[in-house]
Write a structure and sequence with these properties.
The chain is of the alpha/beta class. It contains 10 helices and 11 strands. The strands form 2 sheets. Strands 1, 2, 3, 4, 6, 7, 8, 9 and 11 form a 9-stranded mixed sheet that branches.
């Protein structure tokens, strides 16, 4: 996002954060609909579980359908909060203006995108250049990067995914992923597919990393929370929630205040992500 635009948004986010510190979370009875990124899904799920303990009358529905679909739903009036693992695009901002909607951006956490392989794969590190070469197709065999003499099966996210968008821009340099890549609908699907295929490589949000797959270092830097927060890990990003500034309900804003509070940011950490 361009610097001037981010500064404008950040002021609004700061106000929300400060208000959260003094709020006794007492949202009135109502409903909140949240749609979008599967990367932000684990954070939101845990936050909802904790929030319901102190707001038993609130009804919150959650759907992981991809960042693009979440933002589309927000602009179409189909959700209160759009979870996104990427910044809103210029064409989406233009569409919001045509509809008379002022979109408010709230950064709720930091994340890393981690390349993963099968547990039996001996490869432990790939450079950014090697990742790009694998995904655009100039490296096709694991033996070319220190692995076994086997074809590389490439898994990528579908185009509605914010994780795909970030990978496309920051790893691929806006070069398309090879046409035979297997497109996956969610982080969880990438994990399960890689876990069952010794030739596969995929990429996921850090919060989805588990013991069924092997995380690779990138440029010899391990994807840890410390390395992500410091910026040392080369594939790091912010995670967002977007709302309609004019029509966002009290319930919606109270939930976001909770997530930005110290308790909410501890939930971010518990979910395996990096607090703001």
């Amino acid at each position: 996002m361009k610097t001037l635009h981010w500064k404008k948004i950040f002021i609004g986010v700061t106000v929300i954060s400060f208000c959260a510190l003094g709020t006794a979370y007492s949202a009135e009875k109502g409903k909140i609909v949240i749609k979008g990124s599967t990367t932000v899904l684990p954070i939101t799920q845990k936050a909802i579980e904790e929030y319901r303990k102190i707001n038993r009358n609130i009804s919150i529905s959650l759907e992981g359908s991809g960042s693009g679909n979440g933002i589309k739903a927000l602009l179409d009036g189909g959700t209160d909060i759009a979870n996104s693992s990427r910044e809103i695009k210029p064409n989406e901002i233009e569409r919001s203006k045509l509809k008379g909607i002022t979109v408010e951006e709230i950064a709720v956490a930091y994340d890393m995108i981690v390349p993963i392989v099968h547990l039996s794969n001996p490869v432990t590190n790939l450079t950014m250049d090697q990742l790009k070469a694998i995904y655009e197709g100039s490296i096709k065999n694991w033996s070319e990067v220190g692995g076994p003499n086997e074809k590389i099966i490439v898994l990528s996210r579908d185009t509605s995914s914010g994780t795909h968008e970030y990978w496309y821009e920051h790893v691929m340099g806006k070069v398309n992923v090879r046409p035979d890549a297997l497109l996956q609908a969610s982080n969880g699907q990438v994990v399960s597919t890689v876990a069952g295929n010794r030739k596969a490589i995929g990429y996921i949000g850090y919060g989805y990393l588990n013991k069924s797959v092997k995380a690779l270092k990138v440029n010899n830097v391990e994807g840890t929370i410390q390395n992500g927060k410091s910026g040392k890990y080369p594939i790091s990003r912010k995670l967002y929630m977007y709302i309609n500034r004019k029509s966002a309900s009290k319930e919606t804003r109270e939930f976001i205040k909770f997530l930005l509070s110290p308790k909410g940011q501890n939930i971010v950490k518990e979910a395996g992500y990096i607090p703001r």
